[in-house]
Amino acid sequence: MISILNKLIPAETNLPWLAKVTMLLILVLLPFILSSYGLSLLTKVLIFGLFAMSLDILVGFTGLVSFNHASFFGVAAYTVGILVNRGFENFWLLLIPGIAIALLLAGLLGLLILRSSGAYFLMITLAFGQMLFALAWKWRSLTGGDDDGLPGIGRPEIGLPISMWNEQNFYFLVLILFIGSFLLIKKVIKSPFGKSIVGTRENELRMQSLGYNTWLIKYISYIIAAGFAALAGILYTYFNGFISPQELDWSMSGYILLMVIIGGAGTLVGPVVGAAVIIILQNLISTYTELWPLFMGLIFILCVLFARDGIVGSLLKLYQKKVGEMK
Amino acid sequence: MDSAQIIIQALNGLSYGLLLFLLATGLSLIFGLMGVINLAHGSFYMLGAYVGLAIINLTGNFVLALLGAALILAFVGILVERFFIQRLYKRELDQVLLTFGFAYIFMDVAKWIWGGTPRSLPKPPFLNSSLNILGEAFPVYRIAMIIIGLFVALALWLFLERTRVGAVIRAGVDDQEMVKAMGINIKIFFTGIFALGAFLAAFGGVIGGPIMGAYLGLDFNILVLALAVVVVGGLGTLKGAFWGSILIGFIETFGKVFFINFAIVTIYIAMALILIFKPAGLLGKEESY
User: Which of B109, B224, B261 sits opposite A126 (nearest CB)?
Assistant: First the structure.
């Protein structure tokens, strides 16, 4: 299955530094303007933006359309949630088991699912994702199952005399981790390794004949993506204060995939824009009707039919065309 | 476990496997011909169960419900294929994403119409008894499931192997370009096979209704089993779907006997082993994975 997606991904662009500073300034100043509800939405956008960026490493850059990305998000969320409920407090120390377990899971699953590609890859990721969902559902003694879930997780203790129960403080913690992750992912993408994953996406056979171990490239990229999804899952645990098996379900993986597609796969900024659009739309639509999944399905279909490049992808294409005309 | 129980469980496994076959064969043929994994395939199964239940409540006739639900969802399948999937001709990944979008819509529509309470379909009265097998009671309905499953398998085999249309479908699975070069309009076959898949899935939803019921979440629970079947059996062939279904049916049934709550894990262990040793499935076409 040669993906059309691959051909549509626009080239990496560099925004002028003024634009970057403006964006950063907006993110820093917004919490002082927004209502507490608006601030909570913005925090959610950053957490899911990070989650969507991590999926973009696979979908956009490596060309692997994974249907179980929620597994890593959910497993990390559960790990930290369970440890917090058993009395472990320090946020920074909790990051270690949370992320480690997701990396381990990705390392294990990757061995199985990266043996196949195309349609098989898609099916197998979906199947193993639903297995973990079923496990979380049935393993009541550990996860609380579906009825109870895992409640009362509270906010992180970061070891400083700053209360994370203050929404602004929590937002800034999320913002710092978000920006750190963004820069790190960007660094990976721009590194020689990043070039090699894009090369593998574009032409695996050629990369192999150049002596690259494309299996290993995909495997590492799969594990990296899982690590950032885990960080998003941990932040979500503290943000929501409650986890249920739903966090591992196909519908969650699809929710994130939609963010990547609507924002523009392979653009890194796109998935964050996608997260913002979807979360704001979800809140708007949910005030009028309970049929949000139906609208999500419709957006999915419209996006695939008419706006395959996504928002940022389309803008980039337009921009590149303009630049091309000027030259 | 004594021998009577083993026979009972084997019959359970067989009936369950043949139910999965109704679902998996469509999934497999659609992929074989169109290159698309239909992620809304479980939704057709779930909607089939719900629509079948509605028809039973209206008319009290199980057979009418079976055919009615299957035909209605075949029609829905035609609409989905003709007006959406076909617009993205040759863009297989996008087509998969499209079916994924439909899975959300079907899930929410089912929730909207039928609510969140799990429901169960009544067995048809003429099959609502049990047989005595070596001193154990075994429901006649399960035997009917086995007979119907075998009958559908035979009918599909005859259709694919002995008719002209079947020959075109087999040729299309092997080499689509060549079929087109012969002057055959393959797009009509795409619509046809998609509708047939939806028909069989909904048919399975009604047949399985008295045993599995109709509930939200059934769509992906059953889709995953069908995916396991095609991973184990191999994609694109009737034979693969048939033996894969029976194998998964047995694993799931005996898994439930031994590991009550975690039976689902046994299926994934089977899948993992197949992936390690035979990535194209037991009977799959080598190039398709």
Answer: B224
